[in-house]
Amino acid sequence: MTVLRSKGVLLTCFAQVLLMMARWTILFYTPVYAIAVRSWLPAAAGSILIPTNFGFALGGLLAGAFHIRRTGSFYLACIVAFALFPLTVLFIAYLSTPDTPGWLYLLAPFINGLVTGTALNYTLAHLLHLTAPSTHFISTALIATFRGFAGSFGSSVGGGIFTRTLRANLEQGFLEKGFEGKEDLVRTLLGSPALVARLSGPEREVAQGAYVNALRVLFTAAAGLSVVAFAVQAGTGWKKGVEKKEPKVPEDEEEHVHDDGRDA
User: Fold this and answer.
1) CA distances (Å), 63 to each of 52, 60, 108, 113, 116, in order?
2) pLDDT digit string, tens, across residues 83-118
3) What does the pLDDT read at residue 175?
4) What integer is the mean pLDDT of 203-215?
5) Do the beta carbons of residue 186 and residue 211 sit within 8 Å?
6) Are 40 and 34 in contact (CB under 8 A)?
7) What's phi and psi for 72, nearest 5 deg?
8) Residues 6+ apart with CB under 8 A from 203
9) Which of 39, 226, 236, 253 is 20 to 30 A from 100, alpha carbon to alpha carbon?
10) Which residue has better confidence, 76 or 134?
11) Residues 180-189 pLDDT 10s
12) SS3 sequence, the chain?
């Protein structure tokens, strides 16, 4: 209960959930961009995650190898990493167009992964500074648990935003082009980004534009969520965690207790 009452622990855990929710939108929806907007095959679209996962691993290794070589506070490093994260997400949102060079769109998720890996390592090291050594095993378990929640939360919240935005853009786009009776096509496009590549003419233009707009809205919302994560992480502070000392029983009271026991 002492750990759960710690402001630093709770704020760190909540910041992790918010940051990783934004991160999961990148992992889930950059392949959707590759399929719907760039007409990549689904198998090839999955390869867009290789750079971002490589960056994730590299960021954690670099932070640990060159900076986290001591105990103590890493408050400033956490703040810098959390401040850079929303910028990388906005960069991805900006690049989510049909005209973006492929290499540049691979670079943007790589940078996002690099920043994410760095941020997670720094927050773990800083959490150990904020908590007493005897509670480290509980603190690390908590932060891992909260990170695990982010996948479910990120997919459900992000999916809701994306689906509603995509539907609205598809319906509006077909209406503006004078198409009627496209309800079945809209429903199919909502669940099949690969269908965009099989369309032609105005239908493909509407579908591709709708996916671009929906992805940009989603990534912008993820950037906003990561700004909140930055604010939460900033509230963790830098005060070192100390062991709580148990109150000592005065010697005269202790002798009185022993005497009572003998008299009984």
Assistant:
1) 16, 5, 19, 13, 11
2) 999 999 999 999 999 988 989 999 999 999 999 999
3) 83
4) 91
5) no
6) yes
7) 135, -170
8) 174, 179, 185
9) 226
10) 76
11) 777 888 888 8
12) CCCCCCHHHHHHHHHHHHHHHHHHHHHHHHHHHHHHCCCCCHHHHHHHHHHHHHHHHHHHHHHHHHCCCCCCCCHHHHHHHHHHHHHHHHHHHHHCCCCCCHHHHHHHHHHHHHHHHHHHHHHHHHHHHHCCHHHHHHHHHHHHHHHHHHHHHHHHHHHHHHHHHHHHHHHHHHHHCCCCCCHHHHHHHHHCHHHHHHCCHHHHHHHHHHHHHHHHHHHHHHHHHHHHHHHHHHCCCCCCCCCCCCCCCCHHHHHHHHHHHHHC
- The answer to whether 51 touches 259, Cβ cutoff 8 Å, is no
How distant, in Å, are the alpha carbons of 38, 123, 220, 239 from that of 142?
A: 40, 13, 29, 19
pLDDT of 131: 77
